[in-house]
């Protein structure tokens, strides 16, 4: 290929900058909201251990595959796959799955921003509460003093009933995401990650220690790590597999895009392992942070999606310094969510720059505004458009509102499909020498990696895909 006279491609300033940004992308609502929700709903131990298995047998090989495509392809998702395919002498039509990934990322960021908007609202609620506590000269009191459980739980219903409030939060969050992406890779995304991720870890460890001191860690550890294998039903395994993909940001070409900004000569295998370990560590710590608090006050771990928004605030009411910790807790989730939404918006943005020749500003604005608009429909689905079932003709989506439909369609179909194609492409079609030299894996590791990608990943992901489409098979 002839080098063009275009300005040099943007990139990370160092390997650690990439690792931080990629951890920022991976660690998000998936770790702090979805993982505890699923672990709680699915009975703890067996789900958690099976999940860890999925991360290392399925997630890690795929993570390395996506990093490889980006590093070797040196372009946006579509362009990177096309380049790798061309260098491997196979059809460049494989690049279609990059386009599928970019579309999925665009759709995911639309509702991700809405959910992050709820978090932002709770930051506001607990921020006001903390302010009142400070003004009352009692900064370490429990949160939301004197409010009944009905009032606290009702807050979420009130939020959902208010299109204006939901819209404001969504706008603020999407605006911040767009602003960062528009500023570019090293100037925006990397800066955000290098400031926010250390703050994130300090908060995470701090609140976990708090939970250990005031909460019931013993029960939480037993719940999270004692497997009752009878609870490991096909549905639970399916949920764990899907969660592993989602949590590691796989199947949406996000890691391909971030990987394309890595400098030459970076060791990819250990980099991928660091990201997978950090992401899983954060999910487990999130469990160890949340469940001791939930158990200490005798609440139900299986509360579902409202666990974080309704159940935990009850707990913060009853705990010492609950006001302060509640505020920090929601800041923590917000920080994790924004570094993830940035990575989601970056995928279509890079596509617009690379394939359409748009400026970064223009591309970010087009996709940011488009995702915002779809998000508006999602949030109206809780109030004005509550009866709308966008894919109601399709049995698996017959009962799902707008947000859950976008979530379900991307999560159950697009994401596994993207992961399946990525594993087939790298497992079977990519040039072996190119793989070896770019990844720098030892011989033995290389064999294991390629075997997992060629056989284990396609099989497991096909199971997720088929059972997601035809749940009656389970
Ligand atoms: N991994 C992110 C999370 O756990 C979500 C995400 C998915 C981000 C896909 C980017 C791409 O919240």
UniProtKB/TrEMBL annotation:
Any one GO cellular component localisation term in the record: membrane
Record's bilayer topology term: Multi-pass membrane protein
Highest taxon of the lineage: Bacteria
Keyword terms: Membrane, Transmembrane, Transmembrane helix, Transport
InterPro entries: Na/ntran_symport, SNS_sf, YocR/YhdH-like
Compartments where located: Membrane
Transmembrane segments: 12-33, 45-65, 96-121, 160-181, 193-213, 240-261, 273-299, 319-345, 365-385, 413-430, 451-474
Pfam family, one: SNF
Family matches, as PANTHER family: TRANSPORTER
Protein name: Sodium-dependent transporter
Organism field: Pontixanthobacter luteolus
């Amino acid at each position: 290929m002839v080098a063009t006279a275009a300005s040099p491609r943007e990139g990370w300033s160092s390997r650690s900058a990439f690792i931080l940004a990629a951890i920022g992308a991976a660690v998000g609502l998936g770790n702090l909201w979805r993982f505890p929700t699923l672990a709680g709903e699915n009975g703890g131990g067996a789900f958690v251990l099976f999940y860890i298995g999925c991360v290392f047998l399925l997630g890690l090989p795929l993570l390395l595959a996506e990093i490889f495509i980006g590093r070797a392809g040196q372009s946006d998702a579509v362009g990177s796959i096309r380049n790798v395919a061309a260098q491997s002498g196979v059809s460049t039509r494989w690049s279609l799955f990059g386009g599928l990934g970019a579309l999925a990322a665009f759709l995911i960021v639309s509702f991700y921003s809405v959910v992050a908007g709820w978090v932002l609202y709770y930051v506001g609620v607990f921020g006001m509460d903390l302010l009142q506590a400070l003004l009352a000269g009692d900064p370490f009191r429990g949160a939301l003093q004197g409010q009944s459980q009905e009032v606290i739980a009702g807050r979420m219903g009130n939020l959902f009933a208010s299109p204006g409030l939901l819209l404001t939060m969504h706008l603020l969050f999407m605006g911040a995401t767009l602003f960062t992406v528009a500023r570019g890779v090293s100037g925006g995304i990397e800066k955000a990650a290098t400031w926010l991720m250390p703050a994130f870890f300090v908060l995470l460890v701090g609140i976990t220690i708090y939970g250990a001191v005031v909460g019931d860690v013993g029960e939480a550890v037993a719940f999270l790590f004692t497997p009752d294998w009878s609870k490991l039903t096909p549905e639970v395994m399916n949920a764990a597999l899907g969660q592993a993909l989602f949590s590691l940001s796989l199947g949406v070409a996000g890691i391909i895009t971030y990987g394309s900004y890595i400098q030459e000569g970076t060791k990819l295998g250990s980099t991928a392992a660091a990201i997978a370990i950090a992401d899983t560590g954060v999910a487990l710590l999130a469990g160890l942070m949340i469940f001791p608090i939930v158990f200490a006050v005798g609440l139900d771990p299986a509360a579902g999606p409202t666990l974080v928004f309704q159940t935990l605030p009850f707990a913060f009411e009853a705990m010492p310094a609950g006001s302060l910790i509640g505020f920090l807790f929601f800041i923590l989730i917000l920080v994790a969510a924004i570094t993830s939404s940035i990575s989601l918006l970056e995928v279509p943005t890079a596509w617009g720059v690379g394939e359409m020749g748009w400026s970064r500003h223009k591309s970010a604005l087009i996709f940011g505004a488009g995702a915002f608009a779809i998000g508006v429909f999602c949030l109206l689905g809780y109030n004005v458009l509550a009866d709308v079932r966008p894919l109601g003709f399709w049995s698996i989506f017959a009962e799902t509102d707008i947000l859950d439909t976008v979530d379900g369609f991307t999560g159950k179909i697009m994401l596994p499909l993207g992961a399946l194609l990525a594993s087939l492409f790298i497992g079977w079609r990519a040039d072996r020498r190119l793989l070896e030299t770019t990844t720098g894996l030892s011989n033995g590791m290389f064999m294991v990696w390629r075997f997992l990608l060629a056989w284990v990943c396609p099989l497991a992901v096909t199971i997720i895909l088929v059972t997601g489409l035809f749940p009656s098979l389970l």
